[in-house]
Amino acid sequence: MFSLVYRSRATANFGNNKIAEMLNKARVFNSKNGITGCLLYYNGQFIQYIEGNHLKVLSLFDKIKADKRHNNVEILSHGKINSREFKDWSMAYENFMGDNDELQYVKLLTGDYFEGSNTSEQSQAPSVYFWKTVKQLIYNSPSEQLTK
């Protein structure tokens, strides 16, 4: 089993309707190919965690890199994993629109993740990197800096 975490920036014309369309296609593709993961969108940035068969994940990532709906695609972490983090989701998705209940929940979740026992030796490096990046993104956004 293999996982990969990347970050990218959405192009200006890649709005919510196009994201929803992309997600529908991705979920069908992922289900057929045994790929699971999570996609987060916040302040024009995507962070995605993908897991599954090594070759299938890398092949999917090649397609993702070539997609013109986003740019500045950067691998943040990748590696072998022992078990899935998102085993029940062909592609979980959250679009954080400003300060809302879902964003507050993720802030609590990331705080608990790093302060609790989830970062023990059993944690897998790509997963830890994913959550660290999510935490960095939501705590370093322009709206957060204004309220600190």
Walkthrough of the structure:
The chain is an alpha+beta fold and 148 residues long. It has one domain (2-147): Alpha-Beta Plaits (2-Layer Sandwich). The chain has five helices and five strands. α3 crosses α4 (125-139). The chain is globular, with a radius of gyration of 15 Å. The N and C termini lie far apart (40 Å). The model is unreliable at 98-123 and 141-148 (pLDDT under 50).
Please outline the helices and strands.
Blueprint: E1 2-10, H1 16-33, E2 36-42, E3 45-52, H2 54-66, E4 70-80, E5 92-96, H3 101-115, H4 125-139, H5 142-147
Parallel strand pairs: 2-5
Antiparallel strand pairs: 1-3, 1-4, 2-3
Helix pairs in contact: 3-4
Can you give me a brief rundown of this structure?
The protein is α+β, with helices and mostly antiparallel strands and 148 residues long. The chain has helices at residues 16-33, 54-66, 101-115, 125-139, 142-147; strands spanning 2-10, 36-42, 45-52, 70-80, 92-96.
Low-confidence stretches: 98-123, 141-148
Q: Kindly provide the name of the CATH class.
A: Alpha Beta
CATH domain fold name? Alpha-Beta Plaits
List the helices and strands in order: EHEEHEEHHH
Rg result = 15 Å
Number of helices: 5
CATH architecture identity: 2-Layer Sandwich
Can you tell me the overall shape? globular
Specify the oligomeric state: single chain
- Biggest pleated sheet: 5 strands, mixed
Based on secondary structure, the structural category is: alpha+beta
Strand content: 25-35%
Mean pLDDT: 75
The helicity comes to 40-55%
Strand order of the largest sheet: 4-1-3-2-5
State the total count of DSSP E strands.
5
Q: Please give the alpha-carbon distance between the first and last residues.
A: 40 Å
